[in-house]
Amino acid sequence: MEKNHSLDSLDFDILSCLQNDGRMSFTVIADKLNVSIGTVRSRFNKLLEEGTISIIGRVDPDKAGFRCYAHIAIYVRPATFKESIADAIVKMPEVSFLAGTSGDYDLEVDVMCRDNEHLVDFVNRISKLEGVYQTKTTLYFKVYKYAQPDLNLLRKDH
Question: What range does the record give for the signal peptide (predicted)?
Fold first, then answer.
């Protein structure tokens, strides 16, 4: 994949329209933004090809039956296992977020599980990975916001 081009105001406007309604037609977007359908189509295709946007159906986890959300801090010893552990965890379907961190622990993972039993099974699988020294799990009792990033925060004109 080639390096992404710098997004301009029209790119942000198209992405914002699609964040509000992922099924919005190019015709409607073009009308809203006062540009041609061809312009919207070509910009969209470029954003898609570069991986800036992908087409997915976003599911509300709670309505779909996920009743247990958690944040897990993972401590890795020795540190040389960090990448292999991350490679294994990223493939696990429960994972919604995974990042390397600075500070007290080495990896941070957010998961969505069916229930507490499913979460316990997940943590046990992680704990068995070579190099996992310790885990610390925090349950999310209630999720107040689960959203995509607000693109307005990146606009150059703001």
Answer: none
Q: Inform me whether the pLDDT recorded for 155 exceeds 80.
A: no
Domain 63-140 has CATH 3.80.10.10: no
Q: How far is CA 99 from each of CA 13, 38, 52, 131, rounded to the nearest angstrom?
A: 29, 38, 19, 16
- pLDDT tens figures, 93-132: 999 999 999 999 999 999 999 999 999 999 999 999 999 9
Spatial distance between the Cα atoms of 58 and 73, rounded to a whole number of angstroms: 26
Query: From residue 8, how far is each of 11, 12, 13, 46, 155 by CA, in Å?
Result: 5, 6, 9, 13, 8
Measured in degrees and rounded to the nearest 5, phi and psi for residue 138 equal -120, 125
Query: Cα(137)–Cα(127) distance, rounded to whole angstroms?
Result: 12
pTM above 0.90, yes or no: no
150 phi-psi bin (left φ>0, alpha ψ -120 to 50, beta other): beta
